[in-house]
Amino acid sequence: MFEREQKTLDSTLRGRGGFTLIELLVVISIVAVLIALLLPAVQQARERARTLQCQNNLKQIGLALASYEGTHRCFPPSFVRQEDGNPPPPSGGAALQYRVHWSGFHMLLPNLEQQPLYRQYDFRKTWLSSLTNMSDHSMWPLNATVISTLICPSASHLTMSLGGPTLWMQGAPTDYSFSHGADIIRAIPGPEAACPGGLLHYWHQTPSETRGAFGYNSTCRPQDIRDGSSQTMMLGEKAGGLLTYGGPDSTYPTLKIEYPWAMAAVVYFAPAGATWVVDPLAVTRDIQLPDCPVSPAGTGVPFPMNPRPQVMGVTGNERPLYSFQSDHTGGAQFLFGDGNARFLSQNIDQGVYESLSTISGQEQIGSQQY
User: Fold this and answer.
1) Residue 278 forms beta bridges with which residues?
2) Neighbours of 367 (CB within 10 A)
3) Which residue among 36, 49, 120, 349 is least packed, with the fewest CB closer than 10 Å?
4) Distance CA 154, CA 157 (A)
C-alpha cells in the first residue's frame, strides 16, 4: 500500500514542470498592476501626512502668537522698521539694508521653544550687525538656524542655508508668511511724489479697510480684528523654491526664490548665490503706484493664490513674489485668528479671499464661501 502511494507521488512530481512563459508573464502583469494601484495610494497617504504636519506647524505658530499676546497685549509686528536714516547705517552700510531690524519670527522665538536661540541675539543691534561696526557678523549664523516648525514638509527647498557664511543675507528658509492684508508697502524707494498722499510705510498708517493683522511696526490686538477672528487670516503658506525669477532686467541672474524667516531688510534682493530672497510677508491685493494708499478699497491689482506662471522671466512685475503659495495641490494652508488652520482652495473668489486677509473691512462673508 505504502509503495503504491509512493509511486503515485513520484509520478506526480515527475510530471509537474516549472512555470510556463505565459504563466510567468501573467504573474508579472498582476504584480505590476498591484504596484500601479498601491503606489498612488501610498503617495497620497504620505502627502496627507505632510499636509497634516504643515497644518500642525501653523497651529503651533498660532499658539506662539497667543502666548506672545498674553504677555505683551498685542501680536508682534511682522517687521520692526526704523525711520530711514534714523539712526544712520554704519559706515559702509547701505540704508536699504538697515531699514528694518527684526522680523516677527525673531520676536516669537521664545514662544516657539527656541529660548536658547533667542537669548543669543543682542536686540540692541540690528539683525545684521551693530549700528557702528559693519564687521560685526554675530547675528549671521543665528539667522541661519533651521527651525522645523517654520518648514512645510511638502516643500522642496534647494538648501536650508541661504546665501552662505560670507553673505549678509544668509539665513534659513520659512514656508509661512505674515498677512499684510490687501495692501503692500514698497520697500524699494519709488517716485513718491507721483502719489499725492505719499507712500505709507507703517501699519498704523494703512487704511483700516485694507489693513492686515501684520505690517511694519504693527501692534495688532485681538480687539482690532473686527471682522471676527475666525474670518481673518494671520499667516499663510508661502513655500520657497516654487518660483523662478529673472529679475527686473537682464543684469540679474535667473534664480529660484526663497523666504528666510529672519529676512528683515528689503522686499527683495539678488544675493551672490543660488537664490533670490524675499521677506516673509504676503498680500492679496496691491495698493501701489499708480494706485495710492489713499485710493478707494478695490483699486490696485489682485494677488491670487498660487500665482502663475511659476517661471518668471525678466520682468518688473513683482506680484508673484508676494502671493501666498504652497506645494499642496489646489490651494494653501492658512492660520486664522481663532487659532485654527484651514486649507483654502486656490479657486476661492478673489473678493472673499481679500476680505479674509483684512482685519476690519466689515465685509459680510458666509462660511460656505471658503
Assistant:
1) 268
2) 7
3) 36
4) 10
Q: How far apart (Å, rounded) are the C-alpha atoms in residues 239 and 332?
A: 9
Q: Please answer whether residues 341 and 334 qualify as being in contact, where contact means their C-beta atoms are separated by less than 8 angstroms.
A: yes
Whether the per-residue pLDDT at 280 is higher than 70: the answer is yes
Nearest Cα to Cα of residue 286 among 298, 300, 267, 307: 300
For the beta carbon of residue 159, count every other beta carbon within 10 angstroms: 16
Please report where in the chains the cell 482652495 appears, as a residue. Answer: 345
Give dist(CA 293, CA 297) in Å, integer: 9
Alpha-carbon distance of 185 to 199, in angstroms, equals: 8
Alpha carbon distance 121, 114 (integer Å): 11
- Please give the C-alpha separations between residue 151 and each of 146, 163, 176, in angstroms, as whole numbers: 8, 18, 8
Distance CA 152, CA 58 (A): 9
DSSP for 214-266, written as a single string: --BT----GGG-TT-GGG-EEEEEB-TTS-EE--SSTTS--EEEE-BTT--S-
